[in-house]
Amino acid sequence: xxxxxxxxxxxxxxxxxxxxxxxxxxxxxxxxxxxxxxxxxxxxxxxxxxxxxxxxxxxxxxxxxxxxxxxxxxxxxxxxxxxxxxxxxxxxxxxxxxxxxxxxxxxxxxxxxxxxxxxxxxxxxxxxxxxxxxxxxxxxxxxxxxxxxxxxxxxxxxxxxxxxxxxxxxxxxxxxxxxxxxxxxxxxxxxxxxxxxxxxxxxxxxxxxxxxxxxxxx
Length: 218
Hints:
This protein is mostly helical and 218 residues long. 78% of the residues lie in helices and 0% in strands.
């Protein structure tokens, strides 16, 4: 029986190239942000004229969100696998919980925009322009992403950077960069229009290091 358990664990061992999931998450998120910024004005109180012109681009961005979510979950799994027996329950709970909350709010914001898109396709889009429904959806999406999701991303970066420093699973300069970027999100996300790109940039850095280290020690 113990031999069978050992064999199962060996078969379920995380592949060395699994860290590429973080890179995939970063690239997909960059694409999503770029598509949405090209199609939807940053002002949450705008009239909504984009409903009549940029629907295909927005639909493409929304369809990419689940792929980014799966890649981010895989990235969290890679971090936990790299920690191994060094995983601390407190910090593991914080970084896992904040990561899942960020992902849940990302999906929620995408669902709100998707609902508006569905209404636009089943009814006259001109009826939604300047309507209370559109204003509520835009305001809700703006608050979810710029207040709650961004803050959870900062908590995820803070906790993960702390884990990096205490366990040495990545260089300290990556952890210090994570602290700086997380502080930027906490204090300046409201004033920086490109703050959504901070988390993908940091995930890209740590994933690239882990992938290179795994390939080097193969």
